[in-house]
Write a structure and sequence with these properties.
Length: 404
């Protein structure tokens, strides 16, 4: 059983420091590579699905969250306001209100809808110290968030498309959903009191889930509406939510959002919230545990390690590293100063590809290839090796070495 907290420190992916504070991890270089590649993957997937990216500030006036409903329904999870002159500003607990303002800043025609805007943005939750742990429960969160502003008739199709995007991402990441949950309101007072709103949104999400096995659970909804939660399970059997899709009638009304319809009149859009991988922190934590630190080729912080047998082969080994990097392959040299060949091979056990260069390989322009799964394809011309690695990284497949 893998624990991402232990592995993350052993593999030098992330760490914490009491001077930075609990629940505020920092990313070390290899962890930053994983995070960066994951974030770029998400942006690419979103661009391909018709999303446009925005940036918005991590602070907002208290009044913003009073309008959205966060202040009254979510205040216990927010950091206290800070006074700036005569105003109070708050670290945002959510990106939704900011995106509502971005939509509201321009007039929109029905011809522009659906309008899909996305952001990988920071937000902050005032988590209690007792629940903080590793990357799964943190106070500073980088959220993969998006909001689709659409007509009522478009809402189901947009939510279904978001679920399809989530499924494709899970396939590429080598992880799987343990179940789908329709999260509904409970009896507590933390939910918006508008029964008609809840019925409409719930009916639409039930339509989205038609043909998908799911469970309905009360008390897990967002304060403003029901949601589809895509659940994952860690090696210890603990379940958590990674991705979500929500249909929201509440915030478009609170922010008085509208579009101009074909009749020339103002109409209220529906706001579909969706997150492909949820928080980057939780996603990376799950990836560490699901793969035991042996990330898929395209996501691995180091994809190829080159090991000269002796000092005489170090120049050829360095040349291979440079050629790999020129092709966009993340490669490192592990020279003789790092120990015996056997020790260096063991140290690089989680790297997908190891290229050993001895005297024979150097003379022939080859490398003796070792794969992370224990296979040894043998001596391979350097150009062929780099081509194979590039293809495997590009197709995001699980197979390290396809048959020639």
């Amino acid at each position: 059983m893998h624990d991402h907290r232990r592995l993350g420190r052993e593999l030098e992916l992330f760490d914490t420091d009491p001077l930075m504070g609990a629940g505020l991890p920092y990313w070390l270089p290899d962890g930053a590579v994983v995070r960066h590649v994951l974030e770029e993957y998400v942006r690419e997937a979103e661009r391909g699905a018709g999303y446009r990216h925005v940036y918005s500030p991590v602070l907002g006036k208290r009044e913003l969250y009073e309008i959205s409903g966060h202040w009254s329904h979510y205040g216990d999870d927010m950091f206290p306001p800070m006074r700036l002159g005569g105003e109070e500003v708050v670290l945002r607990p959510s990106l939704c209100p900011h995106h509502a303002l971005i939509y509201r800043s321009r007039s929109h025609s029905y011809r522009e809808l659906p309008l899909r805007i996305a952001e990988l943005g920071g937000m902050y939750r005032s988590e209690l110290s007792g629940v903080l742990g590793g990357l799964t429960r943190v106070r500073s969160i980088q959220l993969n968030d998006a909001h689709i502003f659409c007509t009522l008739e478009q809402a189901v199709a947009e939510a279904r498309a978001a679920l399809d995007l989530i499924r494709r991402a899970y396939d590429d990441l080598g992880i799987r959903a343990s179940r789908y949950r329709l999260s509904l309101p409970g009896d507590s007072g933390k939910y918006v009191a508008d029964p008609a709103l809840w019925r409409r949104a719930t009916a639409l999400l039930e339509e989205v889930l038609d043909g998908i096995e799911y469970e309905s659970v009360e008390g897990e909804a967002a304060f403003y509406g029901p949601k589809i939660d895509v659940q994952i399970t860690d090696p210890a059997g603990r379940e958590s939510t990674l991705s979500t899709v929500q249909i929201d009638f509440h915030q478009p009304e609170r922010f008085d959002l509208h579009y101009i319809g074909p009749d020339g009149g103002k109409h209220r859009p529906v706001m579909v919230h969706r997150s492909i991988i949820g928080s980057v922190e939780r996603a990376v934590a799950h990836l560490i545990e699901a793969h035991g630190g042996a990330f898929p080729v395209w996501l691995a912080p180091v994809q190829l390690v080159v090991l000269p047998v002796a000092d005489a082969q170090e120049e050829q080994a360095l040349d291979l590293v440079r050629r790999a990097e020129a092709r966009g392959i993340r490669a490192e040299l592990s020279g003789t100063g790092n120990g015996t060949l056997g020790a260096r091979v063991r140290a690089a056990r989680l790297v997908p590809y190891q290229a050993v260069i001895g005297e024979r390989e150097a003379d022939a322009g080859c490398a003796a290839v070792r794969l992370r799964d224990g296979r040894r394809p043998g001596a391979v011309p350097v150009d062929e090796l780099l081509e194979r690695i590039g293809v495997r990284a590009g197709d995001r497949g699980a197979e390290l070495w396809a048959a020639a």
